Structure formats: structure tokens, C-alpha cells
Amino acid sequence: MRILILGAAAGGGFPQWNCACSTCAAFWRGQEGVTARTQSSIAVTADDENWVVFNASPDLREQIIAHPQMHPRPERGLRDSPIASVVLTNGDLDHVAGLLSLREKHPLGLYMTGGIADVLDANPVFTALDPAFVTRNRIALDAAFEPVPGVSVRLFAVPGKVPLYMEGETVETQLVGEQTVGAEITGGGKRAMYIPGCAAVLDDLKARIAGADLLMFDGTLWTDDEMQREGVGQKTGARMGHMSVSGAHGTMATFAQTDIARRVLVHLNNTNPLLLPHSAQRAEAEAGGWEVAFDGMELSL
Amino acid sequence: MRILILGAAAGGGFPQWNCACSTCAAFWRGQEGVTARTQSSIAVTADDENWVVFNASPDLREQIIAHPQMHPRPERGLRDSPIASVVLTNGDLDHVAGLLSLREKHPLGLYMTGGIADVLDANPVFTALDPAFVTRNRIALDAAFEPVPGVSVRLFAVPGKVPLYMEGETVETQLVGEQTVGAEITGGGKRAMYIPGCAAVLDDLKARIAGADLLMFDGTLWTDDEMQREGVGQKTGARMGHMSVSGAHGTMATFAQTDIARRVLVHLNNTNPLLLPHSAQRAEAEAGGWEVAFDGMELSL
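Above: the input entities. Below: the C-alpha cells describing the complete assembly.
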């Protein structure tokens, strides 16, 4: 399998359009080594011909143009794309708005839980994906499906919440169901786990991940109160449905003793100091065996 | 007034993600002088501090990062943007999907006709624009409003149709009402007309445009049957609600005798040969007094 990180940032991307927090400011002033990251998406193939995209980021059109692997192949006709299917892991805008860039009567398989399909169904704007060309497949949790030849996927519930734009008066931030899922991706005898959003890791989830050849995990925030510290918001990671990378209950500590061959942090929020390549936090993460994803990163299994 | 073309292409942009028509193919193979164009949007300011964006393209985040005029100004605090308001001229995806990139609790004034507001209201996904921060102003046709200091705008009906994703069984392609509008933009004693989509020009519209200092007009297609000729679709310009640039009833012929100081074609479809800087069609348009918009083009009045 080949995995291409199309976008390594969380919702809003890095930099965020209206933000001058310390990490965004480093980008805006052109600090050396600080590179932009588009919003959260990966692409996977087993045959170098058919790719499945996990999560359709608002930046998908830009991501397609930026990566030759995603370009149409003129020898295959006037309309073509290596993107054969899309899998969604939640209904957040940074994961679904890019569906609106996959219009133009192009055949696609779309795979998601019923809970996420309901969110799309509630918005007529997504009928821009003509049902005559785009099949919306409702996938049961823990059922295997093959979105492209040679790649098998299983979606499983992880603690999370409904999309921000579907929140009601009260919000359950560690809901376990169809609203937030991870994806187990297997092909060529290898197994990758893709979990861009996760509010907590319980024992069953840890057991499921153990032994993976690759874990791509929620790297949204370094610390739970990072947005407050930066002065750009009141919300904690816990409120947003994301556990933090550092700390006694963070991602690094949680998986410290788990057997995982390669560990990559994805879905990085614009406030996360891991975005700065020379930060102390980046050094700490790397010393702990974690890599920080960037746009265009390729992972071969 | 200063006008910045944020995106000069029609829906899908140039190149279009899945297209290998002759113009897209020229881009994909890296032909010299063929430059990408993002989807349809302009920004206008009278004070170089507050900008109004006309149409929020799906590429808006990329457009903001690409143009320093649109960057946040760190001296104004941790959250800032020169974009103070957005005006919509129709509900097409290439004009509204970018609203989803203007989230993050940022104060904005949103201006549109009631007909377009109804389209947004029908899609819960747009509640991502928190009503506590984003005011949806329903603007009557022909009523003047001031979206940023020193810039006065008047929306007026032009022949067009409802957005593709709202089409029913039958489609009126020359509907005159609140679904498709042009914008008269005045400031500093100058008058610009912005009409990115227009199915036909009747005498009243021509009279309204006459005497303008600048006309930015629907340059979607060079010929009405261009998509058929390229083999990438059956739809004509007429069916899509766009008159063509060339031909006896095209834009160039229509305005040949009209008093307009500067003429710029915007909203170019990926199939339009005007995108190729050395094409015969480009030469013909320029000989006729028309410029072809590109991303980053600045127009000062």
C-alpha cells in the first residue's frame, strides 16, 4: 500500500485565514521552515492506479492540483481521475466540504456510516454530487468493504461528537457511535490505522490498534488548553472531541507501551507548536517515536 | 476603488480536477504560459483596509493565503481579517461553498437577495457561520447598501437560473429575479459593474451598464456549444445560464457599441480557449477591447 498525506492540518488549515496566533504568525511573516498545511485528508492505493481518499477536505481541489498522483491521465480519456472512492470518518466540515469539489458527473463510490450519511442527506447542497454518478454507500460499523482493488477497510466507532454545525443545546463529547469513526486499512499484508479525530482511547481501542504497521492519529492539539493559552478561543480539546498529544492522559503516554511500527500525527490544529519544526514540542514528539505529518508525505507499507 | 481578482475561473476552476480537455491538458502537461485560475471571486476596497468579497469561492482559503492583501494583520490582534463582508450574486457552488471557509467565529456581514438567502437557509451546513458573528442581510433588488466604508453596491436582476443543485424537473434558463444578479459597485466617483453570470443582455441591462468605468462580465464560454465540441459534456451555455463571448449574439457583439471604459472577462470555464494566452480567440478578444482576467489581477479606478 502507498499512503499519501493530502492535508495534514485540522479544520481551518494552517495557517487559518483569520488567525495571528504564534504559529500562524510564524507562517504569515515567512519564518524559515514553517510550511503551510491544508486540511485533513489522506489518499491510499494498492495498485498505483485507483486511489481511495479518506475525508474530502475543503482544500481538495488544491490538493489534487498539488500532487501529480491525483491528476487525470489524458490517455484514459477526456474525463478521468485516479480518485475512485471517498471514505468519510466524520461529518465535520474539514472532512466533507471537499465533496463539493468532486462534482461534474464523475463516477465515485462514497462510503460512510449511516450517521454521517444522514448529515449529508440533510443538506441539499450535496446533491451537487449527482446520484446517477456518485453512490452513497452506508457502511455498518466493523464491516469490511473494498473501496479500491486491494485495499480493505473497516470503520469502527471512536469517542467523539457530532459535527459543530449539527450541535444542539447540549453536546456529548465522548459519544461512541456512528458520528466519529476510525478506519482500519489493510492491503498487501499490512495494516494501517487512520484515526484523525478521537476524544479518548479506551482499552478496546488500544487493543485494536496494537500490532499495526502504521498509526495515523489525531494530533489536533499539543495541550488541552492550547487555544486558551494562545488567546484565540475558550474551547478545550475535550470540548472539541480531541484528546491532546502531550500530558499524562495524552496520545504519547497512552500508546507508549503499545506495539506500533510507525506513528504519525495528523489533523494538526493551527495553534499546535508541533507545526514549528524547531519547537521543543516537536523534539519531544520525535524523541517519543512520533512523526508529524506534512502535505505530500508518502508512507509505503 | 481597488479591485482584486481572487479567482478568474468558473465553477470547477482551471484546471478542473477530472478534466483532460484541450485547455486542461495544456495545463496538466505544463505548457508555457498556461496558468491555473481558481474559482470565481473578486475583492473590493475603497480604503485599503476593509475589503468586500463578491462571491465566496470554494478556493477562498487558498485565495486568501495567495494574496497578502487578504492576510490577517497581526498588529490588530490575534484574530483579524481585511475581509469585512461578502456579497453573493447567485447561489451556485462556485460562489457560496467558500462561505464554509469563513467560519471560526469571525464577524462578517453577508449580503444577498432573499432568493439566495433561502438557498443558504435550506442547508444546515451553512450554520457553520455562527449567526452570533455573521449577519445574513437580505437585500432588495436595486436598493443601495454599503458593505464596506466608501463602497456602495446595488444588486440588480439579470437573466439566469437557479443553482444546479436546486434544479427541478424543468429549468427556466432565463429567469429574471432574485436568483441571479449583477452588482453595481460605486466608490470614489467611479462605477464598476460585476456580472459573472448572465444568460442574455436585454436593452435595459445594456442601458444600465453604459457609461461604466469598468465592466467585469461573464466570460464562461467562448462558444455556446464549446463543451460539446470538446467532448466533455452535452450542456450548452444557454442551458447553463451563460451567454457566450463570441458570435452574433455574444458578449463582444452585444457591447461593441456601448460606452464602457474598461472590459474584463471573468468566470472562465476550463474549456474556454481564452485561457490559452496564445490562442486565436484570445487575440480576437483583445483586439475587440476585452481583457481576460487572471488570479491576482488588480484593477484601480
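Note for the figure: Chain B is about 20% helix and 25% strand.
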